[in-house]
Amino acid sequence: MSDIFSLIDIFPLIDKLAFLTFIVATMLSTGLRLTVQQIWEPLRNIRLIVLSLVANFILVPLFVYLLLQIVPLSEPIKDGFIIMAIAAGPPALPKLAQIVKGNVAFSTGLMMLLMFGTIIYMPIVLPLVLQGVQVNSWDIAKPLLFLMLSPLAIGLFIKAKFAAIASSFQPIVSKISSAGLFLGLAVRLAVHFYEIITLLQTGAILVCAVFIVFSFSVGYLLGGPGIDTQRVLGVGTAQRNFAAALLVGTSNFDDPNVVSIIMVTSLLMLVIVLIAGQKFTEIQEEKILEIDQVKVL
């Protein structure tokens, strides 16, 4: 029996280590793969950047807020959903872009843009919609600087100065990133299995599904005209900033349901985006191939 309890106790530690490994390895791998110029180039498209900000900081939060006025849910669950809706800039975006065959350079620049936007946006907006909530911008910025910008900068430096070394190590670091992602997903599913089953018995799972579908759809539709940027903005809008949302939830709410809904929603978002996003990409590529074959004939 004690062995079982020890295993349960170690799960959260494995989850944290897997998450940290995934984030650091993803950012290092991205830096080893790209250049500063490649990351900056897509951000020069002012129209695309404005639409990305509108999708993440206006349309998604407004839609979720209005949806929660209609669906009868407990206040803690509503609070968790609102926090998730306001937190943009998923740390997993470069890896998601790679999986759905999107523009990885754009995904990196967009992730940074949305994260910096969240640092400014959350402290202003959350206290307006949730009474008593306090958000410290520096608390959100710290993981961005130490866990994301630092490994990205190291990777970009190695790529710029030692291109051959970067080319050799990038595939290895990318595999480490994937291993961290899938290990973290497996552990998180095991740890939060009961909460997921509980949510299936409430209207919260319906809100979560509508949240994801709307977020992906609005991101995809506004991410054009390129398919590669549409895919990135679609998955980047559907997958919210779990780290920022969890920080706010744990520091402002005593009710464990707030943190639970943040954890479970972020998990379901990641799983659904990984599976549905990849399937959506395959269907798109099949249609493009069919059109090309018709043109040839």
What does this structure look like?
The protein is built from 13 helices and no strands. The model has no long low-confidence stretch (mean pLDDT 84). It has one domain (2-296): Na+/H+ antiporter like fold, CATH 1.20.1530.20. By secondary structure, it is mainly α. The chain starts with a helix and ends with a helix.
Question: Could you say which structural class the secondary elements and strand pairing correspond to?
Answer: mainly alpha
CATH architecture: Up-down Bundle
Order of helices and strands: HHHHHHHHHHHHH
The shape, in one word, is globular
- The number of distinct structural domains comes to 1
Major sheet: none
Low-confidence stretches: none
Question: What's the Cα radius of gyration?
Answer: 19 Å
Q: Give the end-to-end Cα distance, rounded to a whole number of Å.
A: 68 Å
Task: Enter the CATH topology name.
Answer: Na+/H+ antiporter like fold
